[in-house]
Amino acid sequence: MSTTSLTASLPVPDRADRLRDALLAADFTADGLLELLGAPAYAALARSETVPALRATRADGPLATLVRLFLLQRPVPHDRARAVLPLEEALADGWVVADGGEVRATVDVRPYGGPEGQDWFIVSDLGCAVGGAAGASGRGEGVVLGVGGASTTLAGLTVRTPVASALDLGTGSGIQALHAAQHATRVTATDLNPRALQFTRLTLALSGAPEADLRTGSLFEPVASETYDLIVSNPPFVISPGARLTYRDGGMGGDDLCRSLVQRAGERLNDGGFAHFLANWQHVEGEDWQDRLRSWVPRGCDAWIVQREVQDVTQYAELWLRDAGDHQGDPDRYTERYETWLDEFEQRGTKAVGFGWITLRKSGADEPSVVVEEWPHPVEQPLGETVRAHFARQDYLRTRDDAALLADHFVLAPEVMQEQVGMPGAEDPEHVVLRQNRGMRRATKVDTVGAGFAGVCDGTLSAGRILDAIAQLMGEDPVLLRDRTPQAIRLLVEEGFLEPAPGT
Prior knowledge:
Layout: H1 3-7, H2 16-25, H3 30-37, H4 39-46, H5 51-56, H6 62-71, E1 76-77, H7 78-84, H8 87-93, E2 96-99, E3 102-105, E4 108-113, E5 119-124, H9 149-157, E6 163-169, H10 175-180, E7 184-191, H11 194-206, E8 213-216, E9 228-233, H12 256-265, E10 269-284, H13 289-294, E11 301-312, H14 313-323, H15 331-348, E12 350-362, E13 370-374, H16 384-398, H17 402-407, E14 409-412, E15 416-421, E16 431-436, E17 443-446, H18 448-456, E18 458-462, H19 463-474, H20 478-484, H21 486-494, E19 498-500
Parallel strand pairs: 6-7, 6-9, 7-8, 9-10, 11-13
Antiparallel strand pairs: 1-3, 2-3, 4-5, 10-12, 11-12, 14-18, 14-19, 15-16, 16-17
Helix pairs in contact: 3-4, 6-7, 14-15, 18-19, 19-20
């Protein structure tokens, strides 16, 4: 994509409802695409591979025409476009342009399935909806991306309780604002790039969502001192030497942009409000990365920070050099930029870069719960309810001393299974593992007492009475068992294996 195309005017959304009706009539939806293309070709699109989809759309037909036009950015004959679109309106409003006897799209339009089966559309720059960030290689600094893995990850993490106000900070093509519009009375979306706000307006209009309050500016500057019940941000978190690409480079030194976002979010959250961020952070020589992140958490907020991946500095530099298309250009220029990146890391003492999720909840607690952990294992999205439940458990645990904990009743969480590990034929297992089959899909090793305790937690008996029964069966002193077990119960509750029984 040339710089000139980035400065061209974008479509106007005034009659987007008419275009939406036409797209839906042709089954230009996520489900429709899967049926037309088949699973292999559909999956290939996420890898920026378009050849299978091109082969699958050789035949005429309304859906094949729209896939080629808006998703694959291939010209289609004028008469085929007219058969499936309100063509004169689409031309006048700028969604397509005439090119001889053919019609070309001016923007990417990608079908996107909402969490409750909604048929939505994400609008982005040409070539940037297919494959997410990989589609941006070598493009201009103001490029606006479509749906990528980071976007869907953040959408899945977000707590979706009804709220009065939500802020999508660094909205890009508007996917987070689109999700927020389903459960927030008022949505504000900001971006440093004015073109991104234009794309957000198109995404919302073409998806049939309410309009958002769109504001241009950096970080929290556009919202001044306003506060919100929900803040979401997939910011330009890449730790890079400079701010060459607006969509990914924060323009601050090291991980200062992510740190600043998190630290300043506390004063922008209403009581009980959530803030969700994707972020990169430095692993600095001689500094514990978990302590580094704990220092980011603003006063009065609980936090749950999950590191999903770590890359050494060479892997990290290569990833983002490829993202920018630098590996396809002048080898000397590539080497120069690679050296600059490593020089920056060396000066800052950075040995690796972590990627993950940061969630804040404005609790106002005197002793906030701050959990920082590494979890590179598979999880089950969406995780919004898992996130909400995590903070609810923190609220519960900080109000219970050991005596109160033993007086309470618990139930085993749904989808928790027990595994016994040991040599075949052995009379007793070497150890027992409790495993979650939903959400974070955690696994934890427990002793005989822990396994027996979890197995009988159905809400009927208090924790203390269960331990007394176990002590009697095992011939142990019930007082000693009560003294040593509360910490293990706390861990099972904190990690979601046990839940306080209803009414507790």
